[in-house]
TrEMBL record:
UniProt key word Cell membrane: no
UniProt source species: Teladorsagia circumcincta (Brown stomach worm)
Catalytically driven reaction(s): a ribonucleoside 5'-phosphate + H2O = a ribonucleoside + phosphate
Any one biological process term the GO annotation gives: nucleotide metabolic process
GO molecular function ontology, one term from the record: nucleotide binding
Protein name: 5'-nucleotidase
Amino acid sequence: MEKTIETILSHRSVRVRDSNLVKKKLTEMLKGGNDQLGVISDFDFTLTRSVDHDGMPCFSSHNVLNQLLYALHPELEEEIRAVNAKYIAIEYDPRLSREEKLPYMIEWWTKAHDKYIEFRIHREEIEQFVANAKIELRARWSEARSVTHSLPTDQCASCVPGVVSACSEPLIHVFCKDASVIPKDAPFYDDIAHRGNILLLGDSLGDLHMDVGVAHKGTVLKIGFLNSRVDDLLESYLDGFDIVLVEDQTMDVPDLILQALLENSKKLD
């Protein structure tokens, strides 16, 4: 177990603030085994790559709809890009608190959804763009997924509507992806009720709170993918996440943890 933990911490992309705390959490999580683990993960730029193999940007879910709007209404591109740039700067501003950012995020996603409604994007158009979208899963995702197939896994992403004549409530944005937006009768709660430990995966500081409202009594290990602006954001990410993965387009580290947990569970059986 100690060798596995050292392998994880010595990975080229790993940065930690408190290595002793991370070792303690990893030890407790590995001892608990599969039966005690639940996984909570963001989707865009967490399970998916932020850049492709050539270093070119990949799309987020919302960006697929934006690209569709650009294709159908080229005159909107400059306006939408300017709006996104404004709110992205606010989302990642390390000087602002979560509470200060909240109203801006609500304002941002409301404006975005209003655009989708206003221009009446059709399901067929969405399906066509999704099929050709530049959304790529991270390397070793399939290996990690094969380990988690028996674990309760909640994947959170900001709402992208189907047929855009209205958007479902509640509005989901980067700072409210937690249990408050999951229906109380969802199977997720029963699946995770007896599991004490949580592995949380995200790429934004807003993802730090995805475990809020999930009942558990054990360890929460938070892993953050820092995909860009490393010099500006590393300290903030280290303050929030137990492990920060710097410019890493793979699932290597989560997979190492999950594989070690699986092996340890076999020993416990």
